[in-house]
Amino acid sequence: MTSPSPKPSLSTRWTREQIRAARLAPLWPLLQKRGLQRLEQGGGNFILPAFPGLIFKDSYWRWPQRNLAGNAIDFHVQVLGLSFHQAMHDISGT
Predict the structure, then answer these.
(1) Does a structural domain hold residue 16?
(2) Which label site among 25, 27, 45, 46 has the fewest CB atoms less than 10 Å from its CB?
């Protein structure tokens, strides 16, 4: 019988493929897990009432009032205030 593999630590080294996949991860399922609500704005764009002015679509977001924009990793770091490693763990589900 094999023992379960340990959870990666916050010092995990991420591969380029894992980072690329995390950048392209759809934001809505990740935000939904955090209990956030979205409102449709048309054209596949959504806003988050919890973050007035922030617009997202698929894995990309922008916040014009704060001059911020980016991918799923950037959202976790710049908007939610997580470290890169915390963001990767959240996005990858590990």
Answers:
(1) no
(2) 45
